[in-house]
Amino acid sequence: MHTIVRIHEEDESFQQFLTGKLRDYNNVHSAHHREIREAIVPAIQLKIEQEGRIIAGLYGSVYWGWFDLDRLWVESNVQGQRLGSRLLEEGETIAKSLGATRVKLTTFSFQAKSFYERFGYTVAGVLPDYPPGSDYYMMMKEL
Fold it and tell me: Is a pLDDT exceeding 90 seen at residue 40?
C-alpha cells in the first residue's frame, strides 16, 4: 500500500529531489533538454542606476533560439521616462546577437501587457482569473 505524506514545512531538499527527477526524465525524452544542461546558457542582465541605486533592470536568458525574458522592472517614480523601453530594446538586440529569433515572457493584466503589445508582442496563451480578478499572459514576439 502507498502512503501520501504531507510535508508541513518548506523542504528545499525535497524540491531539489523533484527537480532532479524531472530533469532526469526530460534528459531521457528530449535531446534539447539534455544538450542545454551541458551548455553555458547566456544570461542577459541590464540595469539602470541613478545616484548609485538601481531604478530599472532586465534579466533573461537565451536558449533554443528563444530569449526567455524573465524579469523587467522599472521603479514606479521613474516610469514614463522610456527606461523600460530602452531596456527591452537593448535586451532584444543582445538576444538577437546571441542567436535568438523569438522572445517569450509572462505578465499579469495589472502589470505590463499593453506595454509589451506596443513593442509587437502578442498573446500566446492566457490563464483567466489568475489571480482572481486578473489574467496571466504568456506573450511572444518574432525578432
Answer: no
